[in-house]
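Same chain as my last thread, 121 residues:
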Amino acid sequence: MNKPAVLLFLVIGLLITGCTNLSGNVKKIIVTGEKTAAFDGKDDIQIFLHAIQHSKKIDGVLDVRKSNYKFKIIYKNKKTKSYSLWLGDHHNGMIMDNENTQTGYTLAKFDAEKLLKLLSK
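reply #2:
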């Protein structure tokens, strides 16, 4: 096998391992806003993490309306990370790290739909 192919498999393996380990470090996710809920199941946590990891940065400084959800990731080591979340009726969405409120990230349609479905339970 040539070096580029080996390198590609190594990178893919590291990415898969990294994504899996992230959900293992999360104790729970607490959502407030239009719905208040707590999620501690691995599959539910993975939906949030996937949405964050696959969001795309929006260019420019944002001036947006109030989010319809906020959520806090609580890690097993007691650290937390907070986000604002906008989900629309047209299966679109945006996320913003509460530590950097001038930058937003669009959610993939797939992720927005998964979050809408999870929050409608």
